Every structure is written in structure tokens, then in C-alpha cells.
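Now for one protein, fold included:
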Amino acid sequence: MENGNNHFTNGVHDPSDTKGKVITCRAAVVYGPEEPFVLEDVQVQPPQKMEVRIKILFTSICHTDLSAWKGESVAQRAYPRILGHEASGIVESVGEGVTDVREGDKVVPIFNGECGECDCCKCPKTNICTNFGVNPMKTVMAGDGTSRFTNKEGKPIYHFLNTSTFSQFTVLDSACVVKIDSDDSHLKKMTLLSCGVSTGVGAAWNTANVQSGSKVAIFGLGSVGLAVAEGARARGASKIIGVDINPSKFSKGRTMGVTDFINPTELEKPLHEKIREMSKGGVDYSFEWVGNVDVLREAFLSTHEGWGFTVVLGIHPSPKMFPIHPMEFFAGRGITGSIFGGFKGKTQLPHFAKECMRGVVELDKFITHELPFDKINEAFQLLMDGQSLRCLLHL
């Protein structure tokens, strides 16, 4: 790699080495649905106005990356492309107008940005950002509509989810970069705050506001579902019911606070009836991240009449609509979706990071594997085989 590999030591960097220059580095590029990642040299342009170029130190793989790699929606089929959206790293240089981060800062990228200027960013009721919110259709930078990545022939390589972290260097809009006051020992764990852990814990804390003594049901015990469990445990939930068709997940779930486990394939009655029976009338909160509308209906009906609340976390690619009659809302149950756990990234994530560093949320439990960056195809296979929660790649 040119211009940069030897200039970051324990967070110390001389920006004069690379600032304003094109950096050649290694990236994992995908050229089509389900094709193996190709590790190749790419050129990374300097950041333009209100952009930040960062050196990625660690990145991990989320189910959203897996979905994009498979090309499960038309919006994700833009090639060649650099995927990845969970990472931690160091600011290499900043473009004109960037004032909240500077060279050498430790940062995490966020796919759901916060510009601080739009009506949504100014509203305390939402973490949506009109200008830099999550957008799977976006493949180029907002400033000039071009990519900051090119291959050796000078042809563009497309961006992904405002981040593109499967590269030793990447360029992001400054709205999607969060400064984290972390020492070196914690930085790799901060990678998990870019998506999965923040999404799950935040859904419990911010979106649902789980209270001490509450009863919770979680539909799907992957990394996000287990992060919900960890968040509910930290809030003092008295009963956390985990629902999954894979019973091997219960042992890991128990370490995250899951108290009861249900395998729907073993039931002789509707799932929501079983949960209502176990929770004496229904849970206070249910969380669905399977991405299946039939499961979502079970989650909705498993909550207690009068106050039960369901949070939708799963991505639902099917055109099938939510099967509910309007009169069912008259039982007093509520439902909402949650993006990035309700966290406003730039203003609220730094505090959440401090909570994690002091052990309120135990991030280590989510890292099941660590591999060098050139083993990225193996890391994806681990996720597909259900063997990993988060595989951390060292760049």
C-alpha cells in the first residue's frame, strides 16, 4: 500500500505524508451477486468539501452486508462495489468545512448520518436525517455525485451505505463520522457500535424504553436480537423470551440475559398464545428482526393488551404487507420501526460508547471470531453457516 501504511502508529499520524494525495490501498471489491470478494489495489481520492478520509483499522460483517452481497434487492445491485458498514479507524485527513473531527481522531462510521441541520436532526423525536439517512440506492458521494474509489484503470467503484468499510482507506460525508474518545484497547470493540449492537441495544433503550421488571420477547436471536437482549438485561427486564428455530442459540442467549427459549417448530399452539401463557397475559415489549411478516404478526399479538409495544428491526424485502386488521389496534397495542436503535449518531453515540467501555453493555460477548482482512470470504462463510455473531477483520 502506498502513502499511509507506516504513518499510523498507536494513533499517531503525520498527515503531510498523505493529505491531499491519492492513496493506493487494498480493498475487498465485489463484482456481482454472490461472487467472491476480490482483494485488489484501489485508488482512494482525497476528501472534498465536508468529507472525511479515514484509515480503517477494524471492520466486521453484518447481515445487511450479507444481503447486499447476495443482491437480494435491486437497490443493492451496483457493481463493482465496496461493501461494509461496521468499522473503527483513524481520521487521515478532512475536507474543507469539517470542524468536528481532525487528523488523528479515533472514529466510527455510521450508515445513518446526522447532518445537524435538517428538520429531522433538529427534532428530538427522531434520529432520521433527511440529508444523510440510510439509503441503499446511494452509490456515490453527496457532494458532487461521483465516487472516491477507482480501480487501476481509473474506472469508478461504487460506495455502499454511506460507509464502504471493506477498504484500508475510505471517504465518508462528515455527517457519517463519529469521534470516539477511546483508548487503543477499546477501539476494535467500538467497531460494533457502527450498526448491530447500537441497533439492538438502542431499540431496547431508546425506541421501546424498556423498564426494570419488564417482560420482553425477542424474535430472532442473531446479533441484533441478542443485542436487544443485552440492552433489556442492562435495563433490568425480569423475563426475556428468546424465539428462534435454532436451539443452539440459547446457550449464547443466556449469556446476554435471555431467560426463556422457544423453538416455534416444537409448539402445538400458536406462538403468541404460548408467549402470553408464559408471561401471564403478554409481554410488555416484543422485538422482531427476522424480516418475516407472519413472524411480525406473532410478535405483535404476543404483547399485553392495553400497553404492549412491538418494535420492528428486521428488513422486509418481500412486497407482502403486514397482516393486521385495523380493529386489532383497539386492544391498545402499539407498533413502530427502529433505525439504528434510535441513536442520533454524532450527538448520542459517543455517550453510548462510554457506557460500553465501562461495562454497561459487554461488547466482547458479540465478537466470536477474528481474522485478517484477506480472509474476508471465510468470514462471510462463517456468518452464512450461523457460526459467528461478529467476525472482526483486522486491516
